[in-house]
Design a protein that fits this description.
seven-stranded antiparallel sheet; 13 strands; globular; alpha+beta; three-stranded antiparallel sheet; about 475 residues
Length: about 475
């Protein structure tokens, strides 16, 4: 089953990484090979002036003693042993320090994410910044840096700038860093050559992911609204392609007039179903319990969700990225809660508190390794800290009453865009918003006592179709 490109070829066990969110390839070598080519390009070309937003990042690092310490130490704290001393492709450690990091980002941000066949081995879908920060995110200094409010403010600025590039269309007003591109440069990857998303393998994997939920055999143009006869299939930019829409009949709404049937809000793979989630809990520990108050951005309405049922599922980079209402109802409140972009919990790194505890009690060495699965393992943790959109809906069905939808941004997600307004009545299956360049995860929260059941099991391999049935209310 393909979740991310390159999953179908044989991956040696030492290089296979089980990634919950399928944002990075399962084969660690693909990611490192991609990064190696970026680093080699930077190292073999004359030094380029940093784009303004990265120059600002450099000034933040060098002008703030705390942040300067973090960004120096994080590279030094990556263990100097296998597998971190070399990349799985056998080359030496890639990013050397924060100056090198800035130079590589400077290069990466002039291109849209390419599609590349894994066998071809030089590209990867989706999240270049995560590849760059992969090991340092889990070091003690990286943990502190990526929780730091000033660092996150700067990362948001950088991601917004890249988002503008990915959304840029021909003849747009080019007042940004990429003013010299007179064509939609970000659309150049929407072609049928080997680095294009419409290559033979690209289309095959995209459609395997799109067809598997309902066992259909649609072609891309039957499934998605596009024009196959036009350049780039009619998509005006990379973002336009990423936020592509399904054709209405490709994803029918489950029982539109039956308010006891809850529709799936996002095309996504089940991650977890939790009952009786506490209003406040220790979301940073290994079991990652849901902490409802933190998930809902400390909104006054959050108190009504003590003991909630939480359903969580994640979106892969090959998926569909718009969110749809799970119920017929009225929008009570909708907002974006600013948060972290690259924070992952300490239990994934050498500073794992539980590992220290184990060592102190003489129980061997404990953990203390960097979890190479990276940020994808942290889906529960991210619901409390990552930038996220929170939408409260008063369901027409009185048995459900007030419920909540949370869209959790992860990594490079520059924007969670809410497209509904407070007071608006929405039909089940109607659009609520969308992720731009990315997305990660989403949650549905039902209050304690709501008899909601029949969720698909986390063992389900393929995505649950958006707008299809995800649960039922048993009266």
């Amino acid at each position: 089953m393909v979740h991310q490109h390159g999953d179908e070829h044989d991956i040696p066990p030492e290089h296979r990484v089980h990634r919950h969110g399928a944002w990075l390839p399962a084969d660690h070598r693909v990611q490192h090979e991609w990064l190696r080519t970026q680093v080699e390009h930077v190292d073999s070309h004359p030094k380029k002036e940093l784009m303004p937003v990265l120059q600002e990042f450099k000034e933040l690092i060098e002008g703030n003693s705390r942040i300067y310490m973090y960004f120096n130490q994080m590279w030094e704290e990556v263990p100097r042993k296998k597998p971190y001393d070399k990349d799985p492709t056998g080359t030496k450690r890639q990013i050397r320090d924060y100056r090198h990091m800035l130079a590589v980002l400077n290069h990466v941000f002039t291109q849209a994410p390419q599609w590349t066949d894994a066998a071809f081995g030089v590209g990867m879908v989706g999240v270049p910044m995560v590849a760059i920060f992969d090991y340092v995110m889990a070091t003690p200094s990286g943990h502190a840096a990526f929780l730091d409010p000033e660092v996150n403010k700067m990362l948001k600025k950088i991601l917004n700038e890249w988002g503008r590039f990915l959304n840029e269309v021909a003849n747009a007003n080019h007042d940004s860093l990429h003013h010299h591109h007179q064509s939609p440069k970000s659309a150049e990857v929407l072609v049928s050559n080997r680095q294009g998303w419409f290559s033979e393998h690209g289309t095959k994997d995209l459609m395997e992911v799109a067809n598997s939920p309902l066992k259909t055999k649609h072609k891309f143009e039957d499934m998605y609204i596009c024009d196959p006869s036009a350049e780039h299939y009619g998509f005006k930019s990379w973002d336009d392609f990423f936020t592509r829409r399904f054709r209405e009949d490709a994803r029918p709404v489950a029982a539109p007039d039956d308010d006891d049937v809850v529709a799936n809000a996002c095309e996504s793979k089940v991650y977890n179903v939790a009952r009786d989630a506490k209003l406040r809990d220790r979301f940073w520990i290994k079991s990652q319990p849901y902490s409802v108050l933190d998930m809902l951005g400390h909104d006054p309405l959050a108190a009504q969700f003590d003991g909630a049922t939480v359903y969580q599922a994640f979106l892969s980079s090959l998926s569909y990225h718009r969110w749809h209402s799970p119920v017929n109802g009225r929008i009570v409140r909708a907002f974006v809660e600013e948060g972290t972009y690259f924070s992952e919990p300490l239990f994934e790194g050498p500073a794992d508190p539980s590992a220290y505890g184990a060592r102190q009690q003489g129980e061997g060495t404990g953990g203390g390794e960097i979890d190479t699965r990276g940020i994808n393992v942290a889906q529960g943790y991210l619901t409390a800290l990552a930038t996220r959109a929170v939408i409260f809906i008063q369901a027409d069905n009185p048995v459900i009453g007030l419920m909540a939808f949370v869209a959790v941004g992860m990594d490079e997600v520059s924007t969670c865009e809410v497209t509904v307004a407070q007071g608006q009545h929405v039909r089940k299956g109607e659009q609520l918003g969308l992720f731009h360049f990315g997305g990660s995860s989403h949650c549905l929260l039902f209050r304690a006592g709501v008899p909601v059941d029949g969720f698909p099991p986390p063992s389900r391999e393929e995505n649950v179709p958006v707008r299809g049935q995800v649960a039922v209310v048993r009266k």
